[in-house]
Amino acid sequence: DLTPLEEARAIDMATKTLGLTTEQAGKAVGYERSTAANKIRLLNLPQSAQDLIQSGWMTERHGRALLRLTPAPHLQAAVISDLAAQRSEKLGAEAPTVAQLESTITRLIDQQIAMP
Fold this sequence. Notes:
By secondary structure, this protein is an all-alpha fold. Helices cover about 70% and strands about 0% of the residues.
């Protein structure tokens, strides 16, 4: 019963310390190469986003959506800050759905592209 981030760290450690490929490390824990690679990518999220996933408030899919904003760290930080504020404003508040978060991210990306 590991969290997605614990799984990501274990797969990442296996690739770095044991010299396994992502495919080999993933198969050792029952994942295809693409799934293992996506889990490892979660480790590229800022710690604040990792904390929201680790706590169970956000899912791995939320994290993968946030990775779309990696090229725009200021936008990524703003969205993560907003998510953290939503969580802390109301005890027991639920995270937005993945579809809602993806829609927000798409809108932000489209706005950035449209700006001169």
